[in-house]
Amino acid sequence: MAQALSAQVSWPVRIGSDASANRATGFKEHNNVCFNNKSWISTPLGLKAKNVQLKYQFKVQSTSLQQAGKSKVSVTPLELENAKEPPLNLYKPKEPYTATIVSVERIVGPKAPGETCHIVIDHGGDVPYWEGQSYGVIPPGENPKKPGTPNTVRLYSIASTRYGDSFDGKTTSLCVRRAVYYDPETGKEDPSKKGICSNFLCDSKPGDKIQITGPSGKIMLLPEDPKATHIMIATGTGVAPFRGYLRRMFMEAVPTYHFGGLAWLFLGVANTDSLLYDDEFNSYLRDYPDNFRYDKALSRQEKNKSGGKMYVQDKIEEYSDEIFKLLDSGAHIYFCGLKGMMPGIQTTLKRVAEERGENWDEKLSQLKKNKQWHVEVY
């Protein structure tokens, strides 16, 4: 939504919902709950999934970014807060869930290298998840390497909170970059080598069906402490889980979760047109300056102190003293993006540690032992 949110922030809202819906529902507690015969939480949603797809009616409500930040959005059903453990693998590749595409929106500008889309998927409340988890997507067609068998599952980090972009617990959002291949000799695109799943998702239309699995993953889950410090380091679409974190912290009104810690996002992309959800993040920066910091590394526009391209590890080095002090005080640090980001980051952290007279290998081992180190790269 980086392009669409210039002066206002917009989100789809189910027609007929209002802030009083939470109070009027009258949920009753039970011992357990099942989503399509799959057990998960100890108390039920209490509401049956409403009609999906364009059974799912949307209107777009807009509010100023200032208002969005200071007047948080009500969410339902609040029973999603009652689970003691995250939902895991409710749907598997042999028995996926059939969901529905709600919207597909290009969220980068014309000068961005490549296309990235924000994709909203309706799961009807049947495939709940927590912030930091992933969905699997099975694109249609046969596996080209194994004719006669379905395509393999591709994992995508979820870019929304458990309540989704419609704040009703029935959608999820993915941030997907279209994978294309250019022949190095001719410089022309070779469609035969394009990414099957990313192109399927980016070409999807509202109402299209999609096979999903999951949710999966525990390494990127937010800790329970609402006063914790979170240092989030992303390249490109790796910002997806952090968007979910930040919406939970600063956009949604969850009665049992009041964030009072520090969230610090480092985002590395090629240029300004490549920034993802930038207006959303800037609204948090303006409205919650004591709780949110936001630093960008634009590799094709900025130079590091040595005159080379500015990568996210250069920003880490710039603020290394603060980062190390926060880690020593118990901060959590998260990395998400292409796996090629990690060697440069690790080299930078090791050099900084040595300059501080610390042994990086020992420090890293302690961070992992304390469950402060979270990595999800692909």
From TrEMBL:
Residue span, FAD-binding FR-type domain: 94-222
Subcellular location: Plastid, Chloroplast
EC code(s) of this entry: 1.18.1.2
Residues that hold NADP(+) according to the record: S157, R177, T237, S299, R300, K309, G337, L338, E376
Catalytic activities: 2 reduced [2Fe-2S]-[ferredoxin] + NADP(+) + H(+) = 2 oxidized [2Fe-2S]-[ferredoxin] + NADPH
Main location: plastid
Co-factor requirement: FAD
Pathway: Energy metabolism; photosynthesis
Molecular function as annotated in GO: ferredoxin-NADP+ reductase activity
Lineage top rank: taxon: Eukaryota
One Pfam family it belongs to: NAD_binding_1
Protein's GO biological process: photosynthesis
Keywords: Chloroplast, Electron transport, FAD, Flavoprotein, NADP, Oxidoreductase, Photosynthesis, Plastid, Transit peptide, Transport
Similarity comment: family membership: Belongs to the ferredoxin--NADP reductase type 1 family.
Protein's recorded name: Ferredoxin--NADP reductase, chloroplastic
